[in-house]
Design brief:
This protein is an alpha/beta fold and 362 residues long. It is built from nine helices and 13 strands. Bound molecules: pyridoxal-5'-phosphate. Pyridoxal-5'-phosphate (PLP) binds next to helix 3. The site of pyridoxal-5'-phosphate has 12 residues, from helix 3.
Length: 362
């Protein structure tokens, strides 16, 4: 109807069609206000209801405990690479587990704020094809926090367990897996996510932080907009929040609720990932390098040995209505990002195309 194609982009990525349609219907005049959400004051009554609904829905869908604050911020996940150490370092000691590019960036950023940042484990030597096991983690007792990236967008791996960090708060970058399945929020001290993979258009970053980790005795250099305390006290409205992405976030959460919440979402995501991984396991042309235990449900990497074949596949899939299958430049090959909004039919189409392509190129 709209000539839309299947967009396998790692982010920004597909949004549910129902959400796009709803936002279109409201675009010129939201709820009788006579204006678009894009045009209204963030201090207006109409907008206040939107941001409050978005938070209430997120709390409901993710079952966020009472003693956690939800913050709607700007700056992307990358700003949290800095905000986390700025807000959470007390003794200066924190453990970082590096399982890919983004956790590596977070680690590097933290080193700007302390020279006592510990690399607790990394799978770099194995090209990040797996997640380290609990017994490999060299955790520091009484560290200020442990940082992980829960789903590794570029390498296509996901933590298949929640590491046990004892009393040390666990901080997780969930940019590319938030809302894809239920998670026990109480196991984490802080969760953050850039919204542009699974939640909303780019511009919104969600932070879910346990209240006891929010403090007001921050070093003087910390920018006011990076203070969790200031943002929490002002209900994410210290300054102008990313109004439009928060509104879309609310619509996406309504969509997830209608589907049946995160349990239903997980079942749908598993079903999509399974047909793709099943094909790759049997393929003679394409291989997925990831340890099966650590497979991402959201980002599926695969490649042929011959780079000419990879380039040909990207080109031909693109010509057949499947966009952005080229892998990240640091990994090569292909990557299919199959977030919540990617319909089953899109993955089915990809698998059928892979089969045809393999038959024609073996
Ligand atoms: C995309 C992504 C980032 C970077 O997010 P920005 O919002 O662009 O800063 C960080 N971490 C993970 C896991 C990602 O997928």
């Amino acid at each position: 109807m709209y000539d839309r194609i299947y967009n396998f982009s790692a982010g920004p990525s597909m949004l549910p069609l129902a959400v796009l349609e709803k936002s279109r219907d409201d675009l010129m005049n939201y709820g009788g206000s006579g204006m678009s959400v894009m045009e209204m004051s963030h201090r207006s009554k109409v907008y206040d209801a939107i941001i409050k609904d978005a938070e209430a829905l997120l709390r409901e869908v993710m079952e966020i405990p009472e003693n956690y604050k939800v913050l709607f911020l700007q700056g992307g996940a990358s700003m949290q690479f800095a905000s986390v150490p700025m807000n959470l370092l007390r003794t200066g000691v924190a453990d970082y587990i590096v399982t890919g590019q983004f956790s590596g960036k977070a680690y590097k950023e933290a080193l700007k704020y302390s020279d006592k940042i510990n690399l607790a484990a990394t799978t770099k030597d194995e090209n990040f094809t797996r997640i380290p096991r609990q017994e490999e983690l060299k955790l520091t007792p009484n560290a200020d926090y442990v940082h992980i990236c829960f789903n590794n967008t570029i390498f296509g791996t996901k933590w298949d367990y929640i590491p046990d960090t004892g009393d040390v708060p666990l901080v997780a970058d969930m940019s590319s897996c938030i809302l894809s399945e239920p998670v026990d929020v109480s196991k984490f001290g802080l969760i953050y996510a850039g919204a542009q993979k699974n939640v909303a258009p780019a511009g919104l970053t969600i932070v879910i932080v346990r209240e006891d980790l929010i403090r007001d005795d921050l070093p003087a250099f910390v920018p006011t907009v990076c203070s969790y305390k200031v943002m929490a006290d002002n209900e994410s409205m210290y300054n102008t929040p990313p109004c439009w992405p928060i509104y879309i976030c609310k619509l996406v959460l309504e969509w997830i609720k209608e589907i049946g919440g995160l349990t239903a979402m997980k079942a749908m995501n598993e079903k999509k990932a399974k047909i793709l991984y099943d094909y790759l396991e049997g393929s003679k042309l394409f291989k997925n390098p990831v340890n099966p235990q650590c497979r991402s449900m959201m980002n599926v990497t695969f490649r042929a040995e011959d780079d000419e074949i990879n380039a040909k596949f990207v080109k031909e899939s693109g010509a057949n209505g499947m966009a952005n299958l080229k892998g990240h430049r640091s990994v090569g090959g292909m990557r299919a990002s199959i977030y919540n909004a990617m319909p089953y039919e899109g993955v089915e189409k990809l698998v059928n195309f892979l089969k045809e392509f393999e038959a024609a190129n073996m």
